[in-house]
Design brief:
Blueprint lengths: L1 E7 L4 E10 L2 E11 L6 H19 L3 E5 L7 H20 L3 E5 L1 H8 L7 H11 L8 H25 L5
Parallel strand pairs: 1-4, 4-5
Antiparallel strand pairs: 1-2, 2-3
Length: 168
Amino acid sequence: MVRLLGIDPGLRFTGWGIIDVAGNRLCHVADGVIATDGDVAVPERLRCLHDGLMELVHRFAPAEAAVEETYVNRNGASTLKLGYARGVALLVPALAGIAVSEYGAMAVKRAVVGTGAASKEQVEMMVRRLLPAATIKRADASDALAVAICHAHHRASALRVAGGTRMA
């Protein structure tokens, strides 16, 4: 069994989800959101994200982590701030010696729903179906669990290829 941490980075809300994977079985462990105060300076908000993610790494001891890749939007300032949060999300597990993978939104949707054009509601519905014990309170947590599920699928495929197992 391996424990995976999925992260959906954001400066205001960073979603996180922890799952255990044994073969093709997925088991929900925990999920939630790290929220920062929009009235506080960006460096303090990044410190809050860092501290929250560090606490998760220490409390749940994941073996691997996966972070959703940033999409570029029309507002350059928003994209840059999202990039800051994403940098923290990549750095924290790396500092703890945890391997970190990255997945684009379309890859996550394809792995969880079956189509890269899935809506947020479809992703959340499938996450709830795949992880019935999940206590999702915000879409950010659902997205983070979806990132973890995506990593579990990609990881399983990579292990099969490395082991020489043929898939029908």
